[in-house]
Amino acid sequence: MIALVCCVAEVLSLHDEVHREARQWFDALPRGPHTRILQHFGAFPEREQDVLTLRSGAAWTWWVLAVLPLDPRAQLAMIAMTSLRFLFSTHIHV
User: CA–CA separation, 37 vs 31, rounded Å?
Assistant: First the structure.
């Protein structure tokens, strides 16, 4: 039980860290790309409460995956991940 609590705490910490970094990346984009993303995809989603209970995961992860300039194969590999810990610990450098 203690290991599960530590694992949950680790996943939530990684979730918060990646959300913060993604938000900083988006906010730092030049005005042109920032505006085009807003017009096409809408605003950066806020962090949901109880993210571990969301059936499809956090909305912001899908939003970020859609707007990042990634190769479609990289996007597909991320969509196929079943481990939140692995997904959040994967660092993407664009």
Answer: 10
- Look up the pTM and report it: 0.74
- Distance between CA 91 and CA 36 in Å, rounded? 24
Q: For each successive 10 residues of the chain (94 residues), what is the average pLDDT?
A: 66 89 96 97 92 86 89 83 59 50
3-state secondary structure the chain: CHHHHHHHHHHHHHHHHHHHHHHHHHHCCCHHHHHHHHHHHCCCCCCCCCHHHCCCCCHHHHHHHHHCCCCHHHHHHHHCCCCHHHHHHCCCCC
